[in-house]
Amino acid sequence: MSTAVRKPVHHAVYDTFADWETGHATAHLARGGHEIRTVGATEKEVRSIGGLRVTPDLALDALRPEDSSLLILPGADLWDTSDDLAPFARKAREFLAAGVPVAAICGATAGLAREGLLDDRAHTSAVSFYLAATGYGGGERYADTDAVTDRSGAGALVTAGPTEPVAFAREVLRLLGVFDGEVLEAWYRLFHDSDAGAYAVLEQAGAA
């Protein structure tokens, strides 16, 4: 596990964000030496689906790709019920164009689809017809799998569906070099499959 100082990871927060979808990723990024900073549409407090109150560390307008190592976009009811979160998808476009990775899960994948960011990249989501309903042009690039990392553009893009928070975290942790190889595989087996035998691999690697 690397503990070197790095640029912060930015985690988007907005009303109705799905607090269970990104917890594995943020917890183990933080343990791996990454500062996690929250970013909202403004600095006004928001509330997650689970009722957690979060006051963002900074507003979206103040976020610059060059100051970040990753932008995480969780799902939220608002991705499908309004255009309120479209600015976050536009910020994702800015990040990818600058070569800074983006990780989106659940409803955030639909937001990226509407922004045209999945038209030319391999990706996944809840189910293919969920994204098809956005009218996007990337249906042929949809992969029916737990999580996908596409590195074909300037910045890498991670996508996953709402039932795969551990696979989502696996891709994020691999992308930022927190775990790799057999240690990453063991981490996934422990948290996804409850494989107690995997703990010994993590303990030996100092990653437990």
Structure description:
With 208 residues, the chain is an alpha/beta fold. It is 33% helix and 15% strand. It is built from 8 helices and 9 strands. The chain has a 7-stranded mixed β-sheet with strand order 5-2-1-6-7-9-8, with helices on both faces. Strands 3-4 form a two-stranded antiparallel ribbon. The longest helix has 13 residues, at 181-193. It starts with 8 loop residues before the first strand and ends with a helix.
Order of helices and strands: EHEEEEEHHEHHEEHHH
Helix content: 25-40%
* Secondary-structure-derived class: alpha/beta
Distance between the termini: 10 Å
Q: Tell me about the biggest sheet?
A: 7 strands, mixed
Q: Round the Cα radius of gyration to an integer and report it.
A: 16 Å
Give the beta-strand count.
9
Mean pLDDT: 95
What ranges have pLDDT less than 50 throughout 5 or more consecutive residues?
none
Task: Give the helix tally.
Answer: 8
Q: Tell me the β content.
A: 5-15%
Oligomer: single chain
Order of strands in the sheet with most strands = 5-2-1-6-7-9-8
Q: Per the principal axes of the C-alpha atoms, what is the gross shape? A: globular
Give a brief description:
33% of the residues lie in helices and 15% in strands. It is of the alpha/beta class and 208 residues long.
